[in-house]
Amino acid sequence: MMFMSRHGGGRVLRAFAIASAVVLGAGAVALAVRAEAATSAAHQGASTFVSDRLSVEVVGAGPDVILIPGFASSREVWRAEAQRLKATHRVHLVQLAGFAGEPWTHGDGPFVEPAVEELARYVRDSGLRQPAVIGHSMGGMSAVMLAQRHPERVGRVMSVDSLPFFSALFGPTATAESARPFAQQAAAGIIAADETGFRAGQDRAAVGYSRTSATRAAMVDWSMTSDRQAMAAAISDVMTTDLRPGLAAMTTPVWAVYASDADGGASAAMADGLWRREYATLPGVRMIRVDDSRHFIMADQPERFAAIVDQFLAGDGA
Questions:
Q1: For residues 219 and 202, is the Cβ–Cβ distance under 8 A?
Q2: What are the pLDDT tens digits along the chain (318 aa)?
Q3: In whole angstroms, what is the distance from residue 313 CA to residue 315 CA?
């Protein structure tokens, strides 16, 4: 999810205005292991939960952890982490409808809130007791929303390179209403772009979001197989959803992990300033910057990210 422009104000505005550059979340899984992952998935548990908003694959055994991907992403974005965690945890891999080849039946209706409500229903119906929830990008925003709306359902949240208000990238005075015209423009651009132009936009955008070529290729692949109407509905929701008013009342422990990359990404000072400002009212939030990484931290710094996840799941420092 393009929660960070990475490159200053002018490119932030272009990121909003050029819908073909909207790549809000996608694969961080190396293409070399994708075939193996697809094969192994056939042998892994599928939840009996039925929804037209999302599906869930379950692997492993132990304490529950839910992994939510971002915009235009397959659950494969979390495959490497799920494979690592399944020895000690029961991992719930979410797939959002409309993304990465999954069907979408809701036209231009709302995207984020209905998916979050269905995720709350999944937690309830599956008998999960306050699972940890980790979300990347739009998935991170969804995890925070889940904790705000249903605090009794969530044990702790990790938001990965995700802001509580995406359109804060416009500046500290931005509001949901002031962002609405940009959201409409982005949504319209996604719908209107022809296949060639859309792919070219995705290729350009991917460079700014990961340091690894395999991740970039996966991002484009999943974007190209996503439903355009779903993408338009999602970007419209994301750009006009402001979760900041609910931060001060939150009691769920939250870790906000964010990226910094002096070589083609956000500077440490820029990242620190933005994340600290936007999460300032959230009691007890733990802020962790990961350097030498772009938006897809799990791909660009996998060992560092895995260590952070382990600390988070163990409750260290919370």
A1: yes
A2: 433 333 333 333 333 333 333 333 333 333 333 333 333 333 346 678 999 999 999 999 999 999 999 999 999 999 999 999 999 999 999 999 999 999 999 999 999 999 999 999 999 999 999 999 999 999 999 999 999 999 999 999 999 999 999 999 889 999 999 999 999 999 999 999 999 999 999 999 898 889 899 999 999 999 999 999 999 999 999 999 999 999 999 999 999 999 999 887 789 999 999 999 999 999 999 999 999 999 999 999 999 999 999 999 998 754
A3: 5
Task: Check the CA dihedral 262-264-267-272 and report its sign.
Answer: negative
Rounded to an integer, what distance in angstroms lies between the CA atom of residue 34 and that of residue 199? 21
Strands of the chain (E only): list them. 45-46, 54-60, 64-68, 90-96, 132-136, 156-160, 254-260, 286-291
Q: Judge if pTM exceeds 0.85.
A: yes
Evaluate whether 258 touches 292 at the Cβ level (below 8 Å): no
Unique residue bearing structure tokens 């991170």: 140
Burial class (CB in 10 A: 0-12, 13-18, 19+), 190: buried
Angle formed at CA 130 by CA 127 and CA 136, multiple of 5 degrees: 110
Which tokens in the block code for residue 72? 């235009």
List, in order of start, the domains of the chain with CATH numbers.
9-314 (3.40.50.1820)
CA distance 179 to 239: 7
What is the Cα–Cα distance from 84 to 69, expressed in whole angstroms? 17
